[in-house]
Amino acid sequence: MKRILTIGVMVASMGIAVAQSFESQISDLSLLQNKEVQNELGISEATRDKMNKFAEDFNRRANGAQEEFRKKNPSAQQPSQGLIDQLAKFESDLKKNIFGLLNQKQMKRLSELTLQAAGYPAMMNDIVAKKIGLNAAQLKKLRDEFQKMGTEVQRLQQGAMKPIYDKYGNEKPENEEAAKALQAKVEGEAQAAMAKIQPQLDKMRDGWLAVVKKTVKAIQMNRFEALQGKPFKPSGQ
Hints:
mainly alpha, 10 helices, 72% helix
């Protein structure tokens, strides 16, 4: 459950609907890149080849659109809404094509693995919340408390990293070897800084989990756990 602090972006993206079924609406396409997930779903080599071709087509279209935007807008610091919408359409097409290669049983298992990976934050997704019967007040409570936690996590992490940025931010390595040494030093100090605040992060996580257990009714929790299916344990865990 420690992944709870970094799962927000994924939860937000899970609501992109590419079909009418619950499974295709909430399943995380990126999980299919994992070999163990492919094995769990029983995806054949022939199906993997087809998936790869769809992915290659997506990359070609997305890269082409971004390159065209850069040529037309060389000074742009941010993508235009038009480009964002275009890339979203490409992603929607990719999901539709790849999910179309999976049978109903495989899609169900993929949705279960998605919810297992996301954990309780998945309850904040509109589609999942409706499926398990959360009302508007419950959903608002979960989201408000999660946002508060996220803000505090960001404050702590930025505070922990600031001394490191201040210390090394203006250094200019003379060569590649010096650059690698500097990077290793920064990464080492960053890991130590993050480890130092980990107890505080754990306390925040536990506080949000307490809110979940207090806010979500037992029958709703049972529904959510049923949607997660049989626990998936990758090798080495």
